[in-house]
């Protein structure tokens, strides 16, 4: 792979990660309307983590000279969000999607300045996802290969 192809793969992976971070933040905003108590506190903390990740990806793209993809005005949810249970389910999906994007970035990029933060995002996201998997009763709490598609 040429240096230009490697750079393009890194930028594409970063754009995908950024798009999922935009979506995750939107999902956390929606879920907040249905969560209370400790679940709401956890969701607020997780949303701050995603906000930090989004900012880091935007700064990295800027450093690479690439414009960052914009957030969509809204996103489709896999199921209607009508209560705390469905809100937690949405957050499990958002975290699962984010894990896939961060894993993909690790697989596509050879740049250690990108891979190290991507690995941290994958690791931290695995813990966030595990919490929502436990809340929604989705075993196992931590899949064997976080970020990889699970068989249905």
Tell me what you see in this structure:
By secondary structure, the protein is an all-alpha fold. It has a single domain (3-135), classed as Ferritin, core subunit, four-helix bundle (Ferritin, Up-down Bundle). 70% of the residues lie in helices and 0% in strands. The protein is built from four helices and no strands. The N and C termini lie far apart (34 Å). The model has no long low-confidence stretch (mean pLDDT 95).
How would the blueprint of this fold be written?
Blueprint: H1 3-32, H2 37-63, H3 84-108, H4 112-135
Helix pairs in contact: 1-2, 1-3, 3-4
Proportion in β-strands:
under 5%
Q: Oligomeric status of the shown chains?
A: single chain
- Count all strands and give the number: 0
Which overall shape is indicated by the principal axes computed on the Cα atoms? globular
CATH fold annotation? Ferritin
Task: Return Rg in Å.
Answer: 15 Å
Second rung of CATH, namely the architecture: Up-down Bundle
Flag low-confidence runs: none
Question: Describe the biggest sheet?
Answer: none
In DSSP terms (H or I, runs of 4 or more residues), the helix count works out at 4
What would CATH call the class? Mainly Alpha
What's the rounded overall pLDDT mean? 95
What structural class do the secondary elements suggest?
mainly alpha
- Helix-residue proportion: 55-70%
N-to-C series of helices and strands:
HHHH
> How many domains?
1
Q: Supply the CATH superfamily name.
A: Ferritin, core subunit, four-helix bundle
Taking the alpha carbons of the first and last residues, their distance comes to 34 Å
């Amino acid at each position: 792979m040429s240096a230009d192809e490697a750079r393009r793969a890194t930028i594409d992976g970063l754009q995908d990660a950024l798009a999922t971070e935009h979506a995750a933040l939107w999902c956390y905003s929606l879920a907040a309307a249905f969560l209370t108590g400790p679940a709401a506190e956890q969701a607020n903390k997780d949303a701050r983590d995603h906000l930090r990740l989004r900012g880091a990806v935007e700064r990295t793209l800027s450093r690479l000279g690439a414009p960052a993809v914009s957030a969509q005005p809204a996103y489709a949810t896999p199921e209607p969000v009508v209560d705390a249970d469905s809100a937690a389910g949405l957050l499990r999906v958002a975290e699962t999607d984010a894990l896939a994007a961060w894993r993909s970035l690790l697989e596509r990029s050879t740049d250690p300045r990108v891979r190290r933060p991507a690995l941290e995002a994958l690791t931290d996201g695995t813990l966030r996802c595990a919490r929502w998997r436990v809340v929604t009763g989705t075993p196992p709490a931590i899949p064997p290969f976080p970020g990889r598609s699970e068989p249905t």
